Amino acid sequence: MSMQPADYLVHLSNLLLLVSYSVRDILWLRWFAVAAALTVIPYYLAQPNVLWPPVLWGSVFMAINLFQIARIYLERRPVVLSADEQKLYEMGFRALRPREFVSLVLTGDWRDAVPGEKVLEEGKAVEAVSIAISGDVDVRRQGTSLGRLPPGNVIGTALALTGEPSPIEATFAGAARYMRWPLANLRAFADRRPELRLALQRFVNDDLALKVERLAMNRAP
User: Fold this and answer.
1) Averaged over 126-144, what is the pLDDT?
2) Looking at the structure, do residues 46 and 143 belong to the same domain, yes or no?
3) Strand partners, 169
4) Is 107 buried (19+), middle (13-18) or exposed (0-12) by CB count in 10 A?
5) Alpha-carbon torsion 160, 165, 169, 171, what sign?
6) In 163-196, which ranges are continuous DSSP H helix?
7) Which of 86, 106, 123, 162 has the most neighbouring CB atoms within 10 Å?
8) Is the same domain home to 97 and 15?
9) According to the model, what pLDDT value does residue 189 have?
10) Residue 109 pairs with which residues in a beta bridge?
């Protein structure tokens, strides 16, 4: 059986598809799929009776792959953090990729605190989790000072997990800059991104361990 020149396009197209199935990177898979479609469409057009159905469907699949390729390139663009975001990221969120961290930051809001501003009120339920990137937080219980938390400590995590009213009061000692996440936003974020729960839980555990160590040092004679 003799082969027509156009028949080679079919073989080349299938070879490209075979290569696409062997690559691990989804971006390269889609590029090879686009190349395969571009290669075989002229074959359908070159037939005595143009094969419009495969031309149409090949064009549809190629358009879908090109759209997904554009999305991948957008997702892989380098992430540029602001000065505040970079400082917060370095305080304990390095387990997250920068783009994941930005998604987390977008669920909260940045705030500037004035001296005496409360982030926890004694006897009231916790509504948000906060982390200061500047400014210390005074912690008191029934008017008695329990110590001072420097920037980088998570305020309200343990209480948020238990759902109990706060037994302490946390107040900024001076002007401060901090990130505040409402609990509802954090729960929705974790539900949408279950793969990040472990990283967030690890951060919370490390923060709690650091607080226990600092408290023990403050009480040591």
Assistant:
1) 89
2) no
3) 140
4) middle
5) positive
6) 183-192
7) 86
8) no
9) 82
10) 180
